[in-house]
Amino acid sequence: MNHRTLGKTGFRVSEISLGTWQVGGRWGDPFNKTNAEIILNSAIDSGINFIDTADVYGDGLSERVVGRVARSRGERVYVATKCGRRLNPHTRHTPLKR
Questions:
Q1: pLDDT higher for 12 or 29?
Q2: What pLDDT score was predicted for residue 90?
C-alpha cells in the first residue's frame, strides 16, 4: 500500500481509505458488528490506515466499532468522521428537526 503525507499535517496516510457507510451490513439490515470488525481488520492488515466514518452510519455504531478496532491495533490508524446530525450532545440519538 502506498502512503503519502496528508497536507501539512505530517500524517502518513494510505492512498486508499476505507469508507464505513456499509461495513455493518446491507442497507436496511441490522448492524453486524462482526462483519464490520472483519472488514476493518482486513483493511488495516492490507496497509490501509485512513478510515472514514460518520455519526449517521449505523446510527453511531460504525464510529464505535471503528474506534474499538483502531484502539486494538498496534499500527497508527487515522479516522476522519463527519458530524452534524446530533449538534446538541444532550439530545443523543435524536435527529435534528427541520
A1: 12
A2: 60
Catalytic residues: 52, 57, 82
Q: What is the tens place of the pLDDT at every residue in 22-60?
A: 888 877 888 899 999 999 999 999 999 999 998 888 888
- Phi, psi values for residue 16, rounded to 5°: -110, 130
- The angle that helices 61-72 and 33-45 make with each other, rounded to 10 degrees, is 40
β-strand partners of 79: 51
The domains of the chain are located at 3-82
* The length of the chain, given as a count of residues: 98
Give the C-alpha separation, 56 to 46, whole Å.
Answer: 26
Is residue 54 within 8 Å of 37, Cβ to Cβ?
no
Kindly provide the residue ranges of all beta strands, DSSP E only, lying in 37-86, ordered along the sequence: 50-54, 78-82
Model-wide pTM > 0.70: yes
34: enclosing H helix or E strand? helix 33-45
